Predict the 3D structure of the following.
Amino acid sequence: MKRIKKSFLFLGSLIMYYGCNPSWDVTLYSQKIRGSNKIIYQYDAWGGRDSHQSGFAILDSAEEFNMSKITSLPGSYFAETPRKGYIKLILVNNGENPTTAKDTILNPVKHYFKNIQGIKFEITEYNDTYGSSPMNTGLMEYEFGAIKETNDGLTFENVVHKSGGIEWPSKVSFPKGNITVFEDTTGRVHHIIIEKFIRMKGEIYKPTKPLEIVPDQAIIGFATFYFIPKKLLKSSTLTNEGIFKQLRK
């Protein structure tokens, strides 16, 4: 399965946040970079029936988000927790399936650097998986009983596997950066989304008719984990340092 873009997961269920440009309806999530005055924004913007943009941008905390002035980041997955002055991104070229299995390799196809908003970005690009890997990529769901936040990550406790191919132990931790809190208008957390980059060998479904399972193939993509609290959890329990939280008007 292909990565389910986070921006589309939010559509239809989020409150719209209106940027200073009245022609755009913008849903915004943001996370702070620890020890920095920079803010990373995840945006999903509609400017009319035929105008839609989504992605990530970075601004000084004193700047107001404006669709006409932002520069989109060259990727949406953080290879490590964003830090002051330096951010590592992973980009998977996932427009169309690679034509042959040889087009998917576990090694990067590009590696380069960019400077955006005074921050050095290191970008690594990969080709997407040939075919699909439903056991290792795609959407998976879990429930949890407790959660703990540190400066570096989140730890889920009393985890119960609900659906999907990857089973975690009862206690599992994830680094900050690729974490999004999905809450309702009262601040109650519905679920927490974790994105994980997958780079491994495993079984894929070869895109033939009928589908054919092929073992020991290169898999490049993302797993999206929904962690659903078993009991009431308020968004205010968590900071937004390294964690995307919704910006409301």
Summary: Residues 6-10 form the longest helix (5 residues). The chain has one helix and 16 strands. The CA atoms of residues 53 and 204 lie 31 Å apart.
